[in-house]
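for the writeup, i need someone to sanity check this before i put it in the appendix. the sequnce is what the collaborator sent (i think, or maybe the updated version? ugh). structure was predicted straight from it, no edits. if anything looks off just tell me and ill rerun, i have time this weekend
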Amino acid sequence: MVQRPLSEVALPIWAARLVPSNVTTEHYPLPENIFGSVDPALPEGIGKIAMLSALLENKVAAIASSLENKQQSHYFKATFQSNKEVCRERLPLFEREPNRSDDVAAIRSFISRVSGAMAERNDVLHRVWLALMDAPGVALGITQNQFRHGERHAEKRIRTGQAGKTMTPTHSDGS
């Protein structure tokens, strides 16, 4: 990631006065060692998961908005769970219409797959990811409950791929 001296970045005058001259900037600055020595593929992969799940949430919002008569913006401001509930409640009404059962089945299947993807997304995003000193290229993901209660059974390990292209779940022994 390219870091530039703040003096090279165009900031409003009021903001420039607040930042010391020796600070560098990037779009989302993080200290390089905040998570240990993790492969750059890890935060990149987590970001991709977040971005792709937002697309899925958007698709479910579009489906929910087509099933009710509220303003479309209502659904795009709602959570995935509330839009999923709208679909669950409203789809049976369309199922009774002629030639609609295949469409309803396809939508239910899609929402079911999205629900699984969102559960996996939450499992990845709601962890603190740390590099393992004894297993280069492997990151350990720990939930807040694990921090509080010292649990180790639910830890998730991810092996980052060569040149930062893949993230693969591993067993708790790192294999």
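Residues 127-175 form one domain. Helices lie at 13-18, 41-67, 72-77, 80-95, 101-125, 144-149.
thx in advance!!
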